[in-house]
Automatic annotation (TrEMBL), chain A:
UniProt cross-references to SUPFAM superfamilies, sorted A to Z: S-adenosyl-L-methionine-dependent methyltransferases
This protein's record includes keyword Membrane: no
Name of the protein in question: Ubiquinone/menaquinone biosynthesis C-methyltransferase UbiE
Family: Belongs to the class I-like SAM-binding methyltransferase superfamily. MenG/UbiE family.
Keyword tags: Menaquinone biosynthesis, Methyltransferase, S-adenosyl-L-methionine, Transferase, Ubiquinone biosynthesis
GO molecular-function terms, A-Z: 2-methoxy-6-polyprenyl-1,4-benzoquinol methyltransferase activity; demethylmenaquinone methyltransferase activity
Record EC number: 2.1.1.163, 2.1.1.201
Annotated Pfam families: Ubie_methyltran (PF01209)
UniProt function note: Methyltransferase required for the conversion of demethylmenaquinol (DMKH2) to menaquinol (MKH2) and the conversion of 2-polyprenyl-6-methoxy-1,4-benzoquinol (DDMQH2) to 2-polyprenyl-3-methyl-6-methoxy-1,4-benzoquinol (DMQH2).
Binding-site positions, S-adenosyl-L-methionine: T74, D95, N123, A124
Biological pathway: Quinol/quinone metabolism; menaquinone biosynthesis; menaquinol from 1,4-dihydroxy-2-naphthoate: step 2/2; Cofactor biosynthesis; ubiquinone biosynthesis
Gene (name only): ubiE
Amino acid sequence: MKESPQDTADFGYKTVDREEKASMVADVFHSVAAKYDIMNDLMSFGIHRLWKRQAIACSGVRKGHKVLDLAGGTGDLTAKFSQLVTDSGQVILGDINDSMLKVGREKLRDLGLVGNIEYVQMNAEALPFPDNSFDVITIAFGLRNVTDKNAALRSMYRVLKPGGRLLVLEFSKTDNEALSKLYDFYSFNLLPSMGKVIANDSESYRYLAESIRMHPDQETLKGMMDEAGFEQTTYQNMTGGIVALHRGFKY
Amino acid sequence: MIEVIACAALEAALNRLLSLEPQLDAELHTSKHKVLCVELRDWQQSIALTYTGKQFMLFNQYTDPADCKISANVDTLMQLSNPSILTHLIRQDKLDLDGDLQLAQSYSNAFSNLDINWAEHLSRYLGDAPAQQIANCFQNAKVHRVSVSKTLQNTLSQLCQDELKVTIHPLELEQFKMHTRHVKNHTAQLEQRIHSLLNR
């Protein structure tokens, strides 16, 4: 029997069963969790820190806020949010992958950040929180790994408080032809080799490059956010559009 | 992206300053978690500064509400190292301040009272005596620089006023201003008299 598009999902350039994608993505992150931070620094030449800074600057997180850092991985954003919300607020670091959560929890505890951070293993498509729970939700470099992105955006909209905002930091499409060619060469030739040498895993980094190419471009993602119910949706390109920061509000 | 890099570098510098001068923490105790937004008019940039009690956080392109918002040109902000002129600058319309004035004053006080004990920090690497020696040398050099700069300024002023005659003495300027004021008053009186004659 032929599979319908509703039963399948992209896994990089491959098309796989919808149910299989989550476990395949999980395998990728189980494999890279231990070397995730060092690989991020090497792959992006440290620029990922600037992209994340910009996301935090646009978040408007203040003392007393309740923040959900989805696909928070090793907790780069949570570390900053935890200091901004203080003990009167709360940050929930959510990730579908327990290996990433363990690395994140260890890192944040080593930094002395305890007390206002909770670690929850969760699927972004069905967030285990009541309606109107969070002032700010962020998902940095995580949305492209979600099987049903529309369901995830709807779920985020549901748990966001009225007046709250969602920030999606994700790889996107550059409209600069020269940069695009250079970026493709780097992604498909150098990145897997770096993954092989440092994390002893070239396939996971090949998936990273492919998943970026399969992810919706800036305008499509903006449309998806609008469709999920977000208002005043805007995006800001960074590093020539290699990464885009989308922002939407719930009123 | 350059703005983000500059902001990150500035944040790192501020946090380095915090580690060099722990007194900053006490000075900014009441300002913890409050957002001070500085709008640089001539650079068209908005930078938000927050002190979390552990570190400074600095964000550019800040558009959210802040506890205190200052809007001024860069050269005006440089003058804020003297907190007493804050209200003077506001009256002159050189600076707009919206929100908690005390927050701006506490930051201004904290940074103007900075007194880093360089000898103590250097002594970890060089030992007590050489570190003290270097700190003294820098202190003396600083005093010497101020004195030389003052002498140079005086000499240059005298040269321009008395020898080259390209500028006038401040007293002459004051006298000129007084004459101008007199002429202005006379003109106003004359104008009034002409008006009254014409209206007869």
